[in-house]
Design brief:
This protein is α/β, with parallel strands linked by helices. It has helices at residues 9-20, 42-46, 75-83, 96-106, 126-131, 153-160, 172-184, 201-206, 223-236, and strands at residues 2-5, 25-28, 32-36, 49-52, 69-72, 88-91, 114-119, 137-147, 166-169, 195-198, 214-217, 244-246.
Length: 247
Protein backbone atom coordinates (compact mmCIF):
# COMPACT_ATOMS: atom_id res chain seq x y z
CA UNK A 1 0.00 0.00 0.00
CA UNK A 2 0.99 3.63 -0.45
CA UNK A 3 0.70 5.55 2.81
CA UNK A 4 0.86 9.24 3.74
CA UNK A 5 2.31 10.02 7.20
CA UNK A 6 1.37 13.42 8.58
CA UNK A 7 3.19 13.47 11.92
CA UNK A 8 6.35 15.50 12.66
CA UNK A 9 9.41 14.11 10.88
CA UNK A 10 11.25 12.94 13.99
CA UNK A 11 8.35 10.67 14.95
CA UNK A 12 7.49 9.73 11.36
CA UNK A 13 10.94 8.30 10.61
CA UNK A 14 10.69 5.25 12.89
CA UNK A 15 7.10 4.57 11.91
CA UNK A 16 7.97 4.91 8.24
CA UNK A 17 10.88 2.51 8.59
CA UNK A 18 8.62 -0.12 10.17
CA UNK A 19 6.08 0.27 7.37
CA UNK A 20 8.67 0.17 4.61
CA UNK A 21 10.06 -3.05 6.06
CA UNK A 22 6.66 -4.58 5.26
CA UNK A 23 6.91 -3.43 1.66
CA UNK A 24 4.66 -0.39 1.90
CA UNK A 25 5.35 2.83 0.06
CA UNK A 26 5.60 5.66 2.59
CA UNK A 27 5.45 9.40 1.91
CA UNK A 28 6.19 11.70 4.85
CA UNK A 29 4.50 15.11 4.87
CA UNK A 30 5.01 16.63 8.35
CA UNK A 31 2.06 18.90 9.14
CA UNK A 32 3.39 20.02 12.53
CA UNK A 33 6.68 21.57 13.57
CA UNK A 34 7.95 21.03 17.11
CA UNK A 35 9.98 23.81 18.76
CA UNK A 36 11.54 23.74 22.20
CA UNK A 37 10.52 26.54 24.53
CA UNK A 38 12.67 28.33 27.11
CA UNK A 39 11.48 27.35 30.58
CA UNK A 40 12.37 27.49 34.26
CA UNK A 41 13.23 23.93 35.30
CA UNK A 42 12.67 24.58 39.02
CA UNK A 43 9.33 22.74 39.11
CA UNK A 44 10.84 19.77 37.30
CA UNK A 45 13.89 19.59 39.58
CA UNK A 46 11.82 19.80 42.77
CA UNK A 47 9.22 17.27 41.68
CA UNK A 48 9.12 13.78 43.14
CA UNK A 49 7.70 12.44 39.87
CA UNK A 50 7.33 13.65 36.29
CA UNK A 51 4.35 13.26 33.97
CA UNK A 52 4.77 12.98 30.19
CA UNK A 53 2.05 12.94 27.56
CA UNK A 54 4.39 13.22 24.59
CA UNK A 55 7.89 12.16 23.60
CA UNK A 56 8.39 15.78 22.51
CA UNK A 57 8.80 16.72 26.19
CA UNK A 58 11.57 14.20 26.90
CA UNK A 59 14.53 16.51 25.98
CA UNK A 60 13.41 18.86 28.76
CA UNK A 61 14.25 16.19 31.34
CA UNK A 62 17.97 16.26 30.52
CA UNK A 63 19.96 16.70 33.71
CA UNK A 64 17.33 15.29 36.06
CA UNK A 65 18.01 12.32 38.29
CA UNK A 66 17.76 9.27 35.97
CA UNK A 67 15.91 7.42 38.73
CA UNK A 68 13.13 9.97 39.09
CA UNK A 69 9.71 8.34 38.74
CA UNK A 70 8.19 9.06 35.33
CA UNK A 71 4.54 8.51 34.46
CA UNK A 72 4.24 8.21 30.67
CA UNK A 73 0.99 8.32 28.76
CA UNK A 74 1.89 5.24 26.70
CA UNK A 75 4.65 2.82 25.70
CA UNK A 76 5.99 5.04 22.88
CA UNK A 77 6.55 7.98 25.23
CA UNK A 78 8.00 5.59 27.81
CA UNK A 79 10.45 4.22 25.22
CA UNK A 80 11.60 7.75 24.38
CA UNK A 81 12.19 8.47 28.07
CA UNK A 82 14.12 5.23 28.48
CA UNK A 83 16.26 6.03 25.44
CA UNK A 84 17.09 9.36 27.11
CA UNK A 85 18.53 7.52 30.11
CA UNK A 86 15.59 7.55 32.52
CA UNK A 87 15.04 4.26 34.31
CA UNK A 88 12.05 4.50 36.66
CA UNK A 89 9.20 4.66 34.15
CA UNK A 90 5.61 3.48 34.33
CA UNK A 91 3.51 3.58 31.17
CA UNK A 92 -0.25 3.88 30.75
CA UNK A 93 -2.08 2.56 27.69
CA UNK A 94 -1.97 5.68 25.52
CA UNK A 95 -4.86 7.87 26.66
CA UNK A 96 -5.06 10.73 29.15
CA UNK A 97 -7.73 8.90 31.13
CA UNK A 98 -5.54 5.80 31.46
CA UNK A 99 -2.65 8.03 32.55
CA UNK A 100 -4.70 9.67 35.29
CA UNK A 101 -5.96 6.30 36.50
CA UNK A 102 -2.39 4.94 36.58
CA UNK A 103 -1.16 7.91 38.61
CA UNK A 104 -4.00 7.48 41.09
CA UNK A 105 -3.07 3.81 41.44
CA UNK A 106 0.67 4.32 41.90
CA UNK A 107 0.97 7.71 43.57
CA UNK A 108 -0.73 9.31 46.55
CA UNK A 109 -0.94 13.08 47.08
CA UNK A 110 1.26 12.69 50.17
CA UNK A 111 3.99 10.95 48.14
CA UNK A 112 5.25 14.31 46.92
CA UNK A 113 4.75 16.96 44.24
CA UNK A 114 4.29 16.05 40.60
CA UNK A 115 5.41 18.01 37.53
CA UNK A 116 3.75 17.82 34.13
CA UNK A 117 6.20 18.55 31.28
CA UNK A 118 3.84 19.52 28.48
CA UNK A 119 3.41 21.23 25.18
CA UNK A 120 1.87 24.67 24.91
CA UNK A 121 -1.33 23.14 23.52
CA UNK A 122 -2.81 20.13 25.33
CA UNK A 123 -6.07 18.29 24.80
CA UNK A 124 -6.37 17.75 28.56
CA UNK A 125 -4.68 19.71 31.33
CA UNK A 126 -3.45 16.74 33.35
CA UNK A 127 -2.03 19.00 36.08
CA UNK A 128 -5.39 20.69 36.55
CA UNK A 129 -7.22 17.37 36.67
CA UNK A 130 -4.87 16.06 39.34
CA UNK A 131 -5.09 19.26 41.37
CA UNK A 132 -8.85 18.74 41.61
CA UNK A 133 -8.11 15.36 43.19
CA UNK A 134 -5.82 16.77 45.88
CA UNK A 135 -2.44 16.38 44.16
CA UNK A 136 0.25 19.03 44.00
CA UNK A 137 1.11 19.16 40.30
CA UNK A 138 2.82 21.97 38.44
CA UNK A 139 2.72 22.27 34.67
CA UNK A 140 5.79 23.36 32.70
CA UNK A 141 5.42 24.15 28.99
CA UNK A 142 8.60 22.83 27.38
CA UNK A 143 7.72 22.70 23.67
CA UNK A 144 5.26 24.12 21.19
CA UNK A 145 3.85 22.79 17.95
CA UNK A 146 2.81 24.87 14.97
CA UNK A 147 0.86 23.79 11.90
CA UNK A 148 2.35 23.80 8.42
CA UNK A 149 1.23 26.72 6.29
CA UNK A 150 0.63 24.55 3.25
CA UNK A 151 0.38 20.94 2.21
CA UNK A 152 3.69 19.91 0.59
CA UNK A 153 3.41 20.03 -3.21
CA UNK A 154 4.30 16.39 -3.76
CA UNK A 155 1.75 15.18 -1.20
CA UNK A 156 -0.94 17.36 -2.75
CA UNK A 157 -0.09 16.08 -6.23
CA UNK A 158 -0.19 12.43 -5.14
CA UNK A 159 -3.50 12.99 -3.37
CA UNK A 160 -5.00 14.57 -6.50
CA UNK A 161 -3.85 11.61 -8.57
CA UNK A 162 -5.34 9.09 -6.13
CA UNK A 163 -1.94 7.55 -5.37
CA UNK A 164 -2.50 6.99 -1.65
CA UNK A 165 -4.28 4.01 -0.12
CA UNK A 166 -4.43 5.56 3.37
CA UNK A 167 -3.55 8.73 5.27
CA UNK A 168 -2.32 8.15 8.83
CA UNK A 169 -3.19 10.55 11.65
CA UNK A 170 -1.48 10.29 15.04
CA UNK A 171 -2.82 13.41 16.77
CA UNK A 172 -5.78 15.77 16.82
CA UNK A 173 -3.57 18.64 15.70
CA UNK A 174 -2.26 16.84 12.62
CA UNK A 175 -5.81 15.84 11.73
CA UNK A 176 -6.97 19.44 12.06
CA UNK A 177 -4.00 20.69 10.05
CA UNK A 178 -4.66 18.24 7.21
CA UNK A 179 -8.35 19.12 7.12
CA UNK A 180 -7.62 22.83 6.89
CA UNK A 181 -4.84 22.50 4.33
CA UNK A 182 -6.71 20.31 1.85
CA UNK A 183 -9.66 22.70 2.11
CA UNK A 184 -7.42 25.71 1.49
CA UNK A 185 -6.26 24.33 -1.87
CA UNK A 186 -9.62 22.89 -2.85
CA UNK A 187 -8.73 19.20 -2.82
CA UNK A 188 -10.87 17.90 0.06
CA UNK A 189 -12.85 15.91 -2.51
CA UNK A 190 -9.73 13.92 -3.38
CA UNK A 191 -10.08 12.05 -0.08
CA UNK A 192 -12.86 10.02 -1.67
CA UNK A 193 -10.22 7.67 -3.13
CA UNK A 194 -8.40 7.18 0.20
CA UNK A 195 -8.89 5.67 3.63
CA UNK A 196 -8.09 7.52 6.83
CA UNK A 197 -6.33 5.58 9.58
CA UNK A 198 -6.26 7.33 12.96
CA UNK A 199 -4.65 6.54 16.29
CA UNK A 200 -8.01 6.91 18.07
CA UNK A 201 -11.70 7.50 17.46
CA UNK A 202 -11.29 11.04 18.80
CA UNK A 203 -8.72 11.82 16.11
CA UNK A 204 -10.82 10.11 13.45
CA UNK A 205 -13.69 12.40 14.39
CA UNK A 206 -11.66 15.48 13.43
CA UNK A 207 -11.50 14.35 9.80
CA UNK A 208 -14.84 12.53 9.69
CA UNK A 209 -16.36 15.25 7.49
CA UNK A 210 -13.99 14.39 4.63
CA UNK A 211 -15.31 11.93 2.02
CA UNK A 212 -13.06 8.98 2.81
CA UNK A 213 -13.74 5.57 1.30
CA UNK A 214 -13.45 4.28 4.84
CA UNK A 215 -12.47 5.76 8.22
CA UNK A 216 -10.41 3.47 10.44
CA UNK A 217 -9.14 3.75 14.01
CA UNK A 218 -6.50 1.69 15.79
CA UNK A 219 -7.81 -0.59 18.49
CA UNK A 220 -4.99 0.51 20.83
CA UNK A 221 -3.80 4.17 20.71
CA UNK A 222 -0.08 3.44 20.38
CA UNK A 223 2.44 3.16 17.56
CA UNK A 224 2.15 -0.62 17.82
CA UNK A 225 -1.61 -0.23 17.55
CA UNK A 226 -1.42 1.84 14.38
CA UNK A 227 1.07 -0.61 12.85
CA UNK A 228 -1.21 -3.51 13.67
CA UNK A 229 -4.10 -1.65 12.05
CA UNK A 230 -2.08 -1.15 8.86
CA UNK A 231 -1.11 -4.81 8.81
CA UNK A 232 -4.73 -5.89 9.26
CA UNK A 233 -5.85 -3.56 6.50
CA UNK A 234 -3.14 -5.07 4.32
CA UNK A 235 -4.35 -8.59 5.13
CA UNK A 236 -8.05 -7.80 4.67
CA UNK A 237 -7.61 -6.07 1.34
CA UNK A 238 -9.47 -2.93 0.36
CA UNK A 239 -13.23 -3.09 0.97
CA UNK A 240 -15.12 -0.59 -1.15
CA UNK A 241 -17.91 0.17 1.27
CA UNK A 242 -17.83 3.57 2.99
CA UNK A 243 -17.87 3.08 6.76
CA UNK A 244 -16.03 3.70 10.02
CA UNK A 245 -14.49 0.90 12.03
CA UNK A 246 -11.80 0.16 14.60
CA UNK A 247 -9.06 -2.35 13.73
Amino acid sequence: MNLLLTRPKAQADALGEALRSRGHGVHVAPLLRVDRLPFDDTILRLASAIILTSANAVPALKGLDPAVRVFAVGPDTASAAEAAGLSNIVAATGTASSLLEMIRRHWRPQDGPLAYASGRHVSMNVAGALALQGYSCGRVEVYATSSALRLPDEAACLLRRGEFDAVLFMSVRTADAFSGLVASVGISHCCRTVRSLSLSDKIAGRVAHLPWIESLSALVPTRTGILRAVYELEAWGHPGKTRQRTI
